[in-house]
Design a protein that fits this description.
It is found in: Cell inner membrane. Catalyzes the transfer of an acyl group from acyl-phosphate (acyl-PO(4)) to glycerol-3-phosphate (G3P) to form lysophosphatidic acid (LPA). This enzyme utilizes acyl-phosphate as fatty acyl donor, but not acyl-CoA or acyl-ACP. Belongs to the PlsY family. Its EC number is 2.3.1.275. The protein is mostly helical. The chain has one domain. It is 69% helix and 0% strand. It is built from 10 helices and no strands. Helix 1 (2-13) packs parallel to helix 5 and helix 5 (78-93) packs parallel to helix 9 (159-175). The longest helix is centred in the first third of the chain and has 25 residues, at 49-73. It is globular and about 45 Å long.
Length: 201
């Protein structure tokens, strides 16, 4: 059953909602626009706030659904739920449907956190908002919020969730490696200033 949950969670996470919604709206392939990312921020560059918001909800939702469904099928076994959330996250970052070229995972990460521990999700979300408000760097906000998450799970003594969050945080840093380089050399674009503020994807 755990293997079935793992595979289902990955396949659910791999659904590229941004791509699907933009195509369904007759706007073309989101991968050829803006930053080329499939996430909500790049969808916003089409000028359709409704599509961007829907993408954000769906990309977050697939992480939450994977965790909650895994919980119901496993009598809320923390290890199974953690694996399901991580699998959905990996699916978004490396979707089989798109040749394993996906988004950066922040929205799916947040949805997974909401289902695993809403307190952790709220703190991480608060950190993202605070850093974004002060620095205007979406990528830095995402990186700091993700880095804090494993420590929050340690505080709550949730070891399975801690392990899953370490994996997801490491992948978020990996997926943001170009953003990190731009932050270091001072060329990262701030929120609302150009095509690179694509951390929520």
């Amino acid at each position: 059953m755990t293997l079935v949950i793992l595979i289902f969670s990955y396949l659910l996470g791999a659904v590229p909602f941004g791509l699907v919604l933009v195509r369904a709206a007759g706007l073309g392939d989101i991968r050829t626009m803006g930053s080329g990312n499939i996430g909500a921020t790049n969808v916003l560059r089409t000028g359709r706030k409704d599509l961007a918001f829907a993408t954000l909800l769906l990309d977050s939702g697939k992480g939450a659904i994977a965790v909650l469904l895994a919980g119901m099928l496993s009598s809320f076994d923390a290890r199974v739920m953690a694996v399901a959330g991580a699998a959905a996250f990996v699916g978004h970052c490396f979707p089989v449907y798109l040749g394993f070229k996906g988004g950066k995972g922040v929205a799916t990460f947040l949805g997974t956190l909401l289902a695993l521990n809403i307190k952790v999700a709220l703190v991480a979300g608060g950190v993202w908002l605070a850093v974004a408000a002060v620095t205007r760097y979406s990528s830095l906000s995402a990186l700091l919020a993700a880095a804090l998450t494993p420590f929050l799970f340690l505080v709550f003594g949730q070891w399975a969730f801690f392990a899953a969050s370490v994996v997801m945080t490491a992948l978020i840093f990996l997926r943001h490696r170009e953003n990190i380089l731009r932050l270091m050399d001072g060329t990262e674009t701030k929120i609302g200033k150009g095509p690179r503020d694509d951390a929520v994807a």
